[in-house]
Design goal:
- The protein is mainly beta and about 260 residues long.
- The protein has two domains: about 1-90, no CATH class; about 90-260, Kelch-type beta propeller (Neuraminidase, 6 Propeller), CATH 2.120.10.80.
- It has helices spanning about 165-180, 180-190; strands at about 5, 10, 15, 15-25, 30-35, 40-45, 45-50, 55, 60, 65, 70-75, 80, 95-100, 105-110, 120-125, 130-135, 135-140, 140, 150, 155-160, 205-210, 215-220, 230-235, 235-240, 245, 250, 255-260.
- Helix 1 runs antiparallel to helix 2 (about 180-190).
- It is globular.
- The two termini are about 30 Å apart.
Length: about 260
C-alpha cells in the first residue's frame, strides 16, 4: 500500500520522523504523511516491517554509531527497546527477515565505523535473543557489506549488491584520522583522485541462504560496484538505483536485472 520511511538526513539536519509515502486515489501524485516520531534522530541502519511493528537496529542514533535495537508500533506510535544488538556499534549494515527452515528471524550483516565489519547475527522475535550466524565471506575471505544494499529473494534468501572494500576502507580511515599537515593533504589528494576500480568495491552478487546458513556468489554485477544505492525487487526484476561509484562521486544510472529460475 505504500512505503514506510524511517529517519534519514536532509540539508539542515537528521530526522526522527516515521513517514508513510503512497499515491493519491487517482495515482497522479505522491502523498507523504508523518505518522509518528522516534525518541531519537536516526539514519543509516536497518529497518524492517513485521506485522504492525517496524524493527530498527544499529545505524546512527542521535549522531552516534549504535547497537541499540527498537520496535516502533504503527498502531500505538510507541517505541520499545529490545535486546541490544550483540556486535560492535555500527552504521550501514544490511538486514532482512528470513526463514531458517523453522521460524522467521531478523538477519543483520556487516556495516562499520572506522573499520568495516563482516560479521552476522540473527534475532529471534519470540525469545528476544540474538544468535551468531555465518560471517560474510567467500573462500574463507571476509567481504565488507558496508554501504551495500539488499533485497529479499524469497522466504529464506537475500541478495546483497555493493559494499566498500574492507582493506581500503580500514586503511583510509586510519590515515585520514591520523596523518597531519602535508602528509594528510597528499594522502587526501591521492585517495580522492583514484579511479573507481582502484577502490575495489564488492562486485559479487552475494546470496545468503538462511536455511543452510551459507553465503555464495551468483556472479558479478556488469557495472561499477555501487555503495549507497537503492535496491528494489518488483516481481522478478531487481533495480539498482544510483549510488556512489567512488567516495564523493555518485552515479545517475539505474540498472535492472531479471531473475531466471531453473
Amino acid at each position: 500500500k505504500g512505503i514506510y520511511y524511517v529517519g534519514g538526513t536532509y540539508q539542515s539536519g537528521i530526522s526522527n520522523e516515521v513517514l508513510f509515502i503512497t499515491l493519491n486515489a487517482d495515482k497522479t501524485d505522491v502523498v507523504v504523511k508523518t505518522i509518528g516520531t522516534l525518541p531519537f534522530n536516526y539514519h543509516s541502519g536497518v529497518a524492517v516491517l513485521r506485522g504492525d511493528d517496524i524493527y530498527i537496529v544499529s545505524g546512527k542514533q542521535d549522531g552516534k554509531d549504535s547497537k541499540n535495537f527498537y520496535k516502533y508500533n504503527l498502531t500505538t506510535g510507541k517505541t520499545t527497546a529490545l535486546k541490544m544488538f550483540p556486535g560492535t556499534e555500527r552504521s550501514q549494515p544490511v538486514g532482512q527477515i528470513l526463514n531458517n527452515g523453522s521460524e522467521d528471524l531478523l538477519y543483520v550483516f556487516g556495516g562499520g565505523t572506522g573499520v568495516a565489519f563482516t560479521d552476522g547475527y540473527a534475532y529471534n522475535f519470540a525469545k528476544d535473543t540474538w544468535v551468531k550466524v555465518k560471517d560474510v565471506e567467500l573462500k574463507n575471505k571476509g567481504i565488507s557489506l558496508l554501504g551495500a544494499n539488499s533485497v529479499k529473494l524469497n522466504s529464506n534468501e537475500m541478495l546483497v549488491i555493493g559494499g566498500f572494500n574492507k582493506d581500503v576502507w580500514d586503511d583510509a580511515n586510519l590515515k585520514l584520522g591520523s596523518l597531519k599537515g602535508k602528509e594528510l593533504e597528499k594522502y587526501r589528494h591521492n585517495y580522492f583522485t583514484m579511479d573507481p576500480q582502484d577502490f575495489n568495491w564488492n562486485k559479487e552478487m552475494l546470496v545468503y541462504d538462511a536455511t543452510n546458513n551459507t553465503w555464495k556468489s551468483i556472479g558479478q554485477v556488469p557495472f561499477m560496484a555501487p555503495c549507497g544505492e537503492g535496491l528494489v525487487k518488483i516481481g522478478e526484476t531487481i533495480y539498482s538505483i544510483n549510488g556512489e561509484i567512488k567516495p564523493g562521486v555518485r552515479s545517475e544510472r539505474i540498472y535492472q536485472g531479471t531473475i531466471i529460475k531453473d
